[in-house]
Amino acid sequence: MVDHQIHCQYFSQEELLAAGCLDLRMAMTAVEDALRAYDRGDVLFPEKIVQIFDDATHERINCLPATFRQDKICGVKWVSVFPPNPIKHGIQNLSAVIILSEIEHGFPVAFMDGTLCSNVRVGAMGAIAAKYLARPEASTIGLIGAGEQAKMHLLAMKAALPSLRQCRVAAKTTAEEDQFVRELSPILADVDICPTGTDLERAVRDAEVIVTATSAQAPLLQADWVAPGAFYSHVGGWEDEYAVAKRCDKIVCDDWETVKHRTQTLSRMYQDGELSDDDIHANLVAIVTGERPGREHADERIYFNAVGLAYTDIAIAYAMFTRASEAGFGQDLRIQKEMIFEHANLKNWVRL
Length: 352
Ligand SMILES: NC(=O)c1ccc[n+]([C@@H]2O[C@H](COP(=O)([O-])OP(=O)(O)OC[C@H]3O[C@@H](n4cnc5c(N)ncnc54)[C@H](O)[C@@H]3O)[C@@H](O)[C@H]2O)c1
Hints:
By secondary structure, the protein is an alpha/beta fold. It is built from 13 helices and 16 strands. The strands form two sheets. Strands 1, 2, 3, 4, 5, 6, 7 and 16 form an eight-stranded mixed β-sheet that branches. Strands 10-9-8-11-12-15-13-14 form an eight-stranded parallel β-sheet.
């Protein structure tokens, strides 16, 4: 008699954290492997489905699937972005869940928090870029923005560049900067994390690594503040003046064709005729595979912009699922005990 039960494992964010899944090196490895797999044609990556509920606020829920044929794993990220949440309700903007299914029989294997995975992916992407594009011995990082992405980016940059010793951070309010210092200092004991009293220039001038991760829609970062040799990771929307990209020796994206059609600074520059395809050095995957060079000189200024490749979220989710389930975390979630017409009680349950 064939067993027709279907089970999967459920992982809360807390279980993933307790299982050691906030591991930026693990995430970087998963993302680099995923980029190579995509390059080999091993990844199915259909268009995302977007449902916008409010044209003014862009409150939306997106559905982003991807499959890794070799790993025989298919996943989907179901992610809500509700920008008014923090100010209106004091709650987070982004929340996500992920479902993973095996593709031998097509059954689900995991249902898990996806917010951690999503934020880790943004950091991991920046960190992989830093690994190939920043000065390997970089010791100073300057951040504009002190929110969720900035925090994860600092952890990720430290994973990529262990020589980082000093971090300067500027945000819209000193309270946010103080909170940033309070939360990150205990984790990064060997990094001196300094608030700047909302002085953006002080945060980034002469830093070897610069990150902007803000909710601003304004040219905050100025080209004059970006020193020769700096690596700049642009995370938010419009947050730097056009001259920053113009002065950079290399511009690298996660996927330039996608960036072109968004609302990031580079997208605006492209739409305004200030940037063309020829100005883009490479997509990150070409650097990871060695097809294009990364940093070639100590004095190069290098600009990196990622808007998110959802198959990398699924790759990280699979790595997290594997680690957490091997460590004995997760709760059994029974989807079905038997097939529909096998249920002995079915005649009592059917409504005609
Ligand atoms: N590239 C990606 O893949 C990706 C993924 C997720 C989020 N994002 C983007 O990253 C950005 C940051 O997201 P978050 O979750 O960290 O947001 P958040 O609300 O937690 O933090 C935003 C930060 O921006 C700062 N800020 C806003 N205006 C500023 C100004 N004028 N001067 C200085 N600081 C200012 C705030 O002080 C705050 O620290 C958003 O734009 C978000 O859309 C990008």
